[in-house]
Every structure is written in structure tokens, then in C-alpha cells.
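Hi there,

I know you've been waiting on this one. I reran it after we fixed the sequence typo, so this is the corrected version. Both the input and the resulting structure follow.
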Amino acid sequence: MSRPHISTHEVELTAIRAQGPGGQNVNKVSSAIQLRFDVRASSLPEDIKARWLHAPGNHLTPDGVLIMKAQRYRTQEANRQDAWTRLYEMLARYERAPKARKATRPTRASVQKRLQSKALHARLKANRRHQGD
């Protein structure tokens, strides 16, 4: 299975000013990159789009747009590369369908152990109740 490709015209990269320390230079230079990627309007396969849009913690706006800020590095080009790398890392999370969960039954021993623990707890609580009289 080949990895899905994201075309450059589907991604909007904007140079913005970075936050944090950096002296006077940080106020003059737009070295951070803001990446915008519309998952709904993208050319990704439908199953990947669906997994990405419905996943909890998917970092998308309600409209299905990913907005990511890359400001790890001091140069704009390094931050641009970082933004693309992080986009593909995020895409990799939703590439594969999650494994279906196989239903299993608890072992007889684990059931017995749980019931004994419950009985012991019930006896302790019952003993407390009678002492308070």
C-alpha cells in the first residue's frame, strides 16, 4: 500500500512572526510558518478523511481545517520543512484502520478472585456497621 500524497496546492503556508524570546529580531522577522490544510476538501482517500474527521483530539477546526504553527527553528525554511513533516506524521496516525477488538471472556479464576474480593469488602463494611452501635 502506497502512502497518500498531499499536493502542495492543497496546503496553505503563511509566514508569521514567532512568539517567545529572540530579542529585537523576533519583532522584525517572520520566521514561523502557519500551515492550513482542509481535510474535507483534500484529495485524501475517503476512509482516511473519515477517520481523521471523527477522531478525538484530531486538532481540526469545526470546519475540518488543520491549523498548525511551526516555530521550532530560527529560519523560515527549516520551519516550513518542520510543518510538512508534522503534517505527514499526523496523516500517518489516520492512515491505517484501527484493529477490531476481539471480545474475550474473563477466566474462571479471575471471576472467582473478583467475587472473593467483593465478599471480603462487604464483610469489612458489615463489621464497621455493627461496631458503631
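Quick highlight: The CA atoms of residues 72 and 78 lie 8 Å apart.

Best,
R. S.
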